[in-house]
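Write out this protein's structure.
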Amino acid sequence: MSLSDFIETNLSALVADWTEYARTVSLKDTRLTETQLRNSACDILMWIAADMREPQTDAQQKAKSYGDRHDAQSALDRVAREHADDRLAHGYGINDVVGEYRALRASVLREWLQTSPDRAAVFQEMIRFNEAIDQMLAESVRQYAQRT
């Protein structure tokens, strides 16, 4: 099963795992609800899965890995900006935002690797997934920095 298919098929469990982590970094006085946490993770994962399905040339992959694929109009970047704005509005620090992406990456890859027998295909899909996470993380940090 491809990683993008795995994400969509296991979305509820992945979101639950991530939400558990996100609750540990949230501030006691935050107004961020469980529903808001879940919706944020769901949006991020669905757009990552969609991004992974898009064809990508070697040149595009290289540009993306160097952070040269910033596109203010892309859905991936829009969701990342919304995530940063939401977290800032709820009192999250930049380290918390970065920690959320780190936890999301780790939980998705850990769960997917347990179900994937074809290790060669896994490697290429992990690269694509990591690129999408990194793109969103960079855009979230950029947005957070601009707002602060």
